[in-house]
Amino acid sequence: MITKMKEMRARHSLTQAELAKQAGVRRETIVFLEKGEYNPSLKLAVKISRILDTPVEELFLFEEEELK
């Protein structure tokens, strides 16, 4: 998974801890998401996309083989 979370979080001047608090998750979850090491649930992906005012499909990009 490729993610633009770090870039979009920076545009909103949010720290990982601030984004985590708003999303209701631990900061470590944000770290793993930004590294592409964790696939979020649909609910979490939508929540983060709303916080960052970015469509889910722009925030999280899955490579074709990941979708099979």
Question: In short, what is this structure?
Answer:
The protein has 68 residues and is mainly alpha-helical. It has helices at 5-11, 16-23, 27-35, 42-51, 56-59, and strands at residues 2-3, 60-61.
Low-pLDDT ranges: none
CATH topology: 434 Repressor (Amino-terminal Domain)
CATH class identity:
Mainly Alpha
SSE class:
mainly alpha
- Supply the number of helical segments: 5
| Total domains | 1
Q: State the order of secondary-structure elements, H for helix, E for strand.
A: EHHHHHE
Name the beta content range.
Answer: 5-15%
CATH architecture assignment name: Orthogonal Bundle
- The helix fraction, in percent, is 55-70%
Largest sheet: 2 strands, antiparallel
End-to-end separation: 13 Å
Radius of gyration: 11 Å
Task: Provide an overview of this structure.
It is a single chain. This protein has helices spanning 5-11, 16-23, 27-35, 42-51, 56-59, and strands spanning 2-3, 60-61. It has 68 residues and is mainly alpha-helical. The chain has a single domain (2-67), classed as 434 Repressor (Amino-terminal Domain), CATH 1.10.260. It has a two-stranded antiparallel sheet. The model has no long low-confidence stretch (mean pLDDT 93).
